[in-house]
């Protein structure tokens, strides 16, 4: 184990995978300028700067992936993905199926999002759910440097296009990272804290908010389990359902807006498959249906807060204590 | 069938154009006869397809768009498997998941067909990047329309292919129409070829209804891409003889324009040349027509008697 920031953990994964497989290359706006270590190790053919043109960056990745390379592209900030939607959604996501399986698209698109830099809504927009809705794509959004490294390695090795979202607020947070060749498989959630009374389900930065809420709840005798989804697609349904079947209560927490967000999907899953275990309604604590503001206090208030999560958990637990389930 | 080599006789060129015409006419007939999937035909553009593809080598790769039947057939695709794809059958090249608009045939190097106008332009540099980095002599040919040239991605694609030195032969089939809009309404100037120069890319415009001229120009263009490993843009000046899609409708087109272009029909032109030169007799010509029609009839029978895919497999193959 070694201490490393989230950002450096991603870089370490890139380094290891590029050393391991000569088909892996990386390009994007400023990639060769900012990732000097990669450039030095692997040369200008495999570490490239691109024109400021997200559409052709993503399209080139898709074309290269279909014909033998394994590109990683840095599209910088998530809202810039809007310029690359056709290439990611219509090409990378669909052309495997549409070609009857003749082609695969082993590629990774990297983008940052979330509050923390006061950059405003055109740099900060948690639009990960858009890609969950798009067939053929996988979506990853880690919460720790160790996962950032292990999931990036898994994403590069996967035969499908993977959207890899990095939470800006976590980018420079240090954490323990294994030095070994540890791959975190896609599609596996992590139980970050075990509990009996309520399950807090989240991903990325707000996983830590949930852990803080769980800590506060523990002091009051409420035992909260915290599930970190890690991969949003494919979703680890088994881990989610097992936790809710144990606790009987679920709160979904994410910075992304509520409507048609990942929380809605998880809530639907729980009510379809674990209804009998529920002892209280499923709640969602999310960002509002608003563009993310730049002003630091507003930006921070945009994401769900630990005391609100703890308050919601208290309510759900109290419901049960007062009376038997209403249904 | 194998992909075409570099040497084609004039009769070969004619035979391939006739096969494409017969294929498209069969589709038109199917469409007229009853419910049939939406199709865009390439009638009138056979010379552009055949001329360019005949200049390619087996190791070359092709990206194309919604009007791709000519490109595929010229490359040696089996019309039976193409029609089966159009008709949604499991024997189609893409198991019925593509339909007419997105047929790709990996074994022939026809990679990544996109019907998002400009989609093929977005993917071409990446395919060429694979060629550049993984070795091999092949070049990448990207067919697109004059309408696609108006998409921003056209400009992004040319710029990247130029700054990264990628072996892409861009082939614009300027057929005068962009769905229901004439290019005069949407483009500065008549031609797309001049749009290459600002990106440091050489270009050539050719009479796209003269298959021999296209073949010559494409050989020259392809040779330059092979030698320099840099992009080139070839514009084939041609005409979409039918409406944007079936059912045929050209009520919005100036009849004088149609008349002028029908007089330049690429198949009739080559036929006249061959007859005049004594390379072909009237009987010989009729035999070529009959051969093309028969091949397509056989293909249609194969397609129509092929099974539909099993709905149980509807959602398989989305992920690798
Ligand atoms: C992004 C996108 N916009 C619009 C369409 C609808 N559409 C299909 S073909 C076409 C015309 C394309 O014109 P051009 O590129 O000149 O090709 P042509 O049809 O003339 O061969 C249009 C507008 C589409 N398929 N994709
Ligand atoms: Mg056109």
CATH class of the largest domain in chain A: Alpha Beta
Tell me how many strands of chain B there are.
Answer: 7
Give the % helix of chain B: 40-55%
How many strands, which pairing sense, and closed or not: the largest β-sheet of chain A? Answer: 7 strands, mixed
State Rg of chain B. Answer: 19 Å
Number of H/I helices of chain A: 13
Secondary structure tally: strands of chain A:
14
Radius of gyration of chain A: 20 Å
Placed side by side, the strands forming the largest sheet of chain B appear as 1-2-3-7-6
- Main sheet makeup of chain B: 5 strands, parallel
General shape of chain A: globular
CATH topology of the domain at 34-57 and 78-185 and 214-263 in chain B: Rossmann fold
Are any ligands bound, and if so which? thiamine diphosphate, magnesium ion
Tally of contiguous helical segments of chain B: 10
CATH fold topology of the largest domain in chain A: Rossmann fold
Share in helix of chain A? 40-55%
* Beta-strand content estimate of chain A: 15-25%
Structural class of chain B: alpha/beta
Instruction: Determine the mean pLDDT of chain A.
Output: 96
CATH architecture of the domain at 34-57 and 78-185 and 214-263 in chain B: 3-Layer(aba) Sandwich
Lateral strand order in the biggest sheet of chain A: 3-2-4-5-7-6-12
Q: Short description, anyone?
A:
In chain A, 40% of the residues lie in helices and 21% in strands. By secondary structure, chain A is α/β, with parallel strands linked by helices.
Pick out its properties.
heterodimer, A: 327 residues, alpha/beta, Rossmann fold, 2 domains, seven-stranded mixed β-sheet, five-stranded mixed β-sheet, 13 helices, 40% helix, globular, B: 320 residues, five-stranded parallel β-sheet, two-stranded antiparallel sheet, 10 helices, disordered N terminus, binds thiamine diphosphate, binds magnesium ion
């Amino acid at each position: 184990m070694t201490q490393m920031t989230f950002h450096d953990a991603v870089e370490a994964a890139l380094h290891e995978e590029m050393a391991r497989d000569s088909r892996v290359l990386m390009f994007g706006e400023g990639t060769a300028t900012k990732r000097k270590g990669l450039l030095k190790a692997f040369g200008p053919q495999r570490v490239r700067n691109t024109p400021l043109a997200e559409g052709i960056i993503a399209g080139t990745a898709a074309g290269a992936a279909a014909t033998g390379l394994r590109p990683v592209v840095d599209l910088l900030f998530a809202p810039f993905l809007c310029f690359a939607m056709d290439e990611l959604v219509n090409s990378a996501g669909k052309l495997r199926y549409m070609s009857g399986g003749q082609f695969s698209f082993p590629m990774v698109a990297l983008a940052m999002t979330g509050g923390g830099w006061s950059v405003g809504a055109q740099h900060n927009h948690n639009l990960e759910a858009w890609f969950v809705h798009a067939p053929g794509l996988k979506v990853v959004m880690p919460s720790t440097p160790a996962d950032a490294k292990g999931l990036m390695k898994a994403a590069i090795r996967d035969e499908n296009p993977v959207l890899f979202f990095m939470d800006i607020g976590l980018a420079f947070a240090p954490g323990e990272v294994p030095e070994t060749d540890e791959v975190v498989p896609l599609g596996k959630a992590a139980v970050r804290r075990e509990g009996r009374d309520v399950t807090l389900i989240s991903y990325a930065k707000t996983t830590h908010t949930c852990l803080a809420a769980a800590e506060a709840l523990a002091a009051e005798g409420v035992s909260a389990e915290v599930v970190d989804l890690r991969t949003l697609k494919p979703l680890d349904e088994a881990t989610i359902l097992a936790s809710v079947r144990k606790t009987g209560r679920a709160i979904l927490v994410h910075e992304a807006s509520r409507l048609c967000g990942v929380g809605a999907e998880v809530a639907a899953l729980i009510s379809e498959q674990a209804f009998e275990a529920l002892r209280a309604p499923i709640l969602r604590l999310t960002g509002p249906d608003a563009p993310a503001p730049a002003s630091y206090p507003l930006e921070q208030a945009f994401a769900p807060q630990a005391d609100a999560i703890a308050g919601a958990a208290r309510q759900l637990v109290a419901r049960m204590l007062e009376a038997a389930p209403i249904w | 069938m194998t992909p075409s080599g570099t040497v084609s006789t004039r009769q070969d060129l004619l035979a391939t154009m006739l096969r494409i015409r017969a294929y498209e006419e069969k589709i038109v007939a199917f469409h007229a006869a009853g419910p049939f999937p939406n199709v865009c035909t390439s009638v009138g553009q056979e010379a552009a397809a055949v001329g360019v593809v005949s200049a390619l080598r087996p190791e070359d790769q092709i990206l194309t768009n919604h009007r791709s039947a000519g490109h595929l057939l010229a490359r040696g695709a089996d019309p039976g498997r193409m029609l089966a794809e159009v008709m949604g059958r499991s024997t189609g090249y893409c198991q019925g998941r593509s339909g007419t608009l997105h047929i790709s045939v990996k074994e022939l190097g026809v990679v990544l067909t996109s019907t998002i106008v400009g989609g093929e332009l977005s993917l071409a540099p990446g395919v060429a990047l694979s060629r550049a980095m993984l070795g091999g002599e092949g070049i990448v040919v990207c067919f697109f329309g004059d309408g696609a040239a108006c998409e921003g991605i056209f400009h992004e694609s040319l710029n990247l292919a130029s700054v990264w030195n990628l072996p892409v032969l861009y082939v614009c089939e300027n057929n005068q129409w962009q769905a229901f809009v004439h290019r005069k309404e949407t483009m500065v100037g008549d031609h797309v070829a001049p749009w290459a120069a600002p990106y440091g890319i050489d270009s050539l415009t050719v009479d796209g209804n003269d298959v021999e001229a296209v073949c010559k120009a494409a050989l020259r263009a392809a040779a330059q891409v092979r030698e320099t490993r840099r992009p080139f843009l070839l514009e084939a000046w041609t005409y979409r003889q039918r409406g944007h899609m079936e059912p045929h409708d050209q009520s919005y087109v100036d009849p004088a324009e149609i008349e002028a272009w029908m007089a330049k029909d690429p198949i009739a032109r080559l036929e006249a040349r061959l007859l005049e030169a004594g390379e072909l007799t009237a009987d010989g010509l009729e035999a070529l027509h009959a051969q093309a029609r028969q091949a397509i009839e056989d293909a249609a029978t194969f397609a129509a008697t092929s099974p539909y895919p099993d709905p149980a497999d509807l959602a398989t193959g989305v992920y690798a």
